[in-house]
Amino acid sequence: MAEAIPKEVPLKAVQIEALVVMKVIKHCSQNFPTVATGSIVGMDVNGVLQITNSFPFPVADSTPDTYHDSNNASSNAAAAPRLKSNVSYQNEMIKYLREVNVDANNIGWYTSANMGNFVNSTMIENQYFYQRELNERTVALVHDVSRSSQGSLSLRAFRLSPNFMSQYKEGKFSTESLQKSGLSYKDILVELPLNIHNSHLLTSFLHQLPSKPRTEELSIPTNLAALTKDSNVPQPPLFPNLDSLDLSIDPFLEKTCDLLLDSIETHYVELGNHQYYQRQLGREQAKITAWQTKRKGENAARAAAKQTPLPEDEWTRLFKLPQEPSRLEGLLNSRQVEQYARQVDGFSASISSKMFAARSNLLPGDS
Hints:
The protein is an alpha/beta fold. About 50% of the residues lie in helices and about 15% in strands. It contains 13 helices and eight strands. It has helices at about 20-30, 65-80, 85-100, 120-135, 145-150, 160-170, 175-180, 200-205, 225, 250-305, 315-320, 330-355, 360; strands at about 15, 35-45, 50-55, 105-115, 140-145, 155-160, 190, 195. It has an eight-stranded mixed β-sheet. Helix 4 (about 120-135) links the parallel strand 4 and strand 5 (about 140-145). Helix 10 runs antiparallel to helix 12 (about 330-355). The chain is elongated, with a radius of gyration of 30 Å. The relative contact order is 0.10.
């Protein structure tokens, strides 16, 4: 049994077993496009979270008949990690795992994503619930199903930053509080490096798996060099591969650009709401200033007439300043815009080089 690690040791990385990766991928793919969530268990060893097992959260079986029913089902599945019924289910599962001598320390949860869209209030609330209530040393695994379907595994580990945790606990996301704390959209999530691990027994088993016998007829070697040549090494083709010169735009990149434009539009909506608040605040402050100036003039006249001055703090009862809207949604949307921008940058690198290479043939009048 590993020794208890003090909380002063920061988390440096996340190590996940390959079997857990397969279980997470299977669960998320089966529920796609609905959000799938589950719990992960393991242990903390010298600042490295070792994820050794996982199990999904139960979701009520219901067939969505309309678009709104589908959205409600997805919202309920996304909020499953912090439901009271699922918390009880998680504790019961951990108790059963402990009875069969399996790592039974809850170290976080996992969720599925579509096109990198995972930075939202639901994800933040779930991770805040885990870092505050259950265990401070927890992570959130995010598996992008659509990105993984393109042939590249997308599995990332995130935590909420300490600065954001303290700000979220206070519940104050006004302009003044953000300026004092120095919190920006870059300080919301902290990504930890993630490594996939296989046990030595599994690695030995994979190396001992027999390969399928060759069905085609074996060619007779023509010289001594052919006898020493490894037949498992792939040979270069005799014809060039022209697939890498395809100028078509990746559908994933096109969809990501559409989502990026939607997020930018949402950003302008939030900016417009804040500007409307500032205009309303300016009008009310102008009314208060005019009232205070008038009251001071009246008190000066009453003082000259040796009368009792009127109170100058009645404006708090007569006027009501507008409430500043929370800037949390704007911060989350800015972080999501950054996520989309990174995806576009990664996919457009190869396409841009192809376009520049073929520029002379695409532009009219150029030789």
